[in-house]
């Protein structure tokens, strides 16, 4: 059985949906996993806590599954050090995180909506996976930045990947990914609309005037977002089933080190049908 360490800020429905998806698959016998603990970087009794109600719903869900809930408030931890030196603060907070979680023992950490940067030492000691909303050879940055860059490059494909957490944030090697086309079908008309707009406006002007409501942008985001949760679940399943393993921050399949990430596009698309 694969033991997971689950790291989440628990700030909204996405955090709950991801946990529920994994637990549903476990209860249906489709995932041979155990979540050893859930770690949250809020205690939820902090002042100035706009997500308190959402986070309490997440905490209640964790406890309903009988999963140990471990918290360490980032807002209460060494506030003077935070103001003085955020790198040193992150290292100190990472030591606290490891102190609180290491006794549980786990095979793989999942960053499931965890909104703090992990410190370098935790990245070295723990094998942890994080989602990035782009293909392994795609743009870096937030999902918004990724989509605008795809549009600016007249890209053919988009996707999402799970990558190993390393000291270089969002730069760890991709382990798994899924791909989907952003050409053909409904997309062709949306690209044509974008081309017409760009005859009289720059892309920056379109961003400013329409933002995330721009139809091509919106379509790419919708098709990407619907694949993110299935990709995370399919990745966990690949590890749980023993199809892939990780040693020394490298991915192995059938005992052989893989030169590149593992393509889960078929599994993800099947889960959407």
Q: Top keywords for this entry?
A:
273 residues, alpha/beta, Rossmann fold, 2 domains, eight-stranded mixed beta sheet, three-stranded antiparallel beta sheet, 10 helices
Going by helix content, strand content and strand pairing, the class is alpha/beta
Number of helices: 10
> What is the averaged pLDDT score?
92
How many beta-strand elements? 11
Just name the CATH architecture of the largest domain: 3-Layer(aba) Sandwich
Largest sheet: spatial strand order: 3-2-1-4-5-6-7-11
Helix percentage: 40-55%
The CATH homologous superfamily of the largest domain is called: Formyl transferase, N-terminal domain
Q: Which value, in Å, is the CA radius of gyration?
A: 20 Å
Main beta sheet = 8 strands, mixed
N-to-C span = 28 Å
β-strand amount: 15-25%
Order of helices and strands: EHEHEHHEHEHEEHHHEEEEH
**Class of the largest domain in CATH?**
Alpha Beta
- Predict the CATH topology of the largest domain: Rossmann fold
What does the overall shape look like? Answer: globular
Low-confidence stretches: none
Query: How many structural domains?
Result: 2
């Amino acid at each position: 059985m694969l033991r997971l360490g689950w790291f989440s800020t628990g700030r909204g429905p996405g955090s709950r949906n991801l946990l529920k998806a994994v637990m549903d698959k476990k209860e249906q016998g489709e995932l041979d996993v155990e979540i050893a603990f859930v770690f949250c970087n809020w205690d939820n009794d902090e002042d100035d806590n706009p997500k308190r109600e959402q986070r309490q719903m997440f905490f209640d869900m964790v406890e309903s599954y009988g999963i140990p809930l471990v918290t360490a408030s980032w807002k209460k931890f060494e506030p003077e050090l935070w103001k003085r030196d955020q790198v040193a603060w992150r290292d100190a907070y990472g030591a606290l995180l490891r102190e609180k979680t290491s006794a549980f023992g786990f095979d793989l950490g999942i960053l499931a909506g965890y909104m703090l940067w992990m410190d370098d030492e935790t990245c070295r000691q723990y094998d942890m996976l994080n989602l990035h909303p782009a293909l392994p050879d795609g743009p870096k940055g937030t999902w918004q930045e990724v989509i605008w860059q795809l549009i600016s490059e007249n890209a053919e494909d988009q996707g999402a990947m799970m990558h190993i957490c390393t000291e270089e944030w969002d730069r760890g090697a991709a382990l798994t990914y899924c791909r989907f086309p952003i050409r053909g079908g409904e997309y062709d008309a949306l690209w044509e609309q974008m081309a017409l707009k760009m005859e009289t406006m720059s892309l920056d002007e379109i961003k400013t005037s329409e933002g995330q409501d721009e139809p091509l942008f919106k379509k790419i985001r919708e098709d990407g977002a619907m694949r993110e949760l299935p990709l995370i679940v399919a990745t966990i399943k690949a590890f749980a089933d023993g199809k892939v393993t990780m040693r020394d921050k490298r991915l192995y399949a059938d005992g052989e080190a893989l030169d590149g990430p593992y393509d889960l596009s078929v599994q993800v698309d099947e889960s959407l049908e």
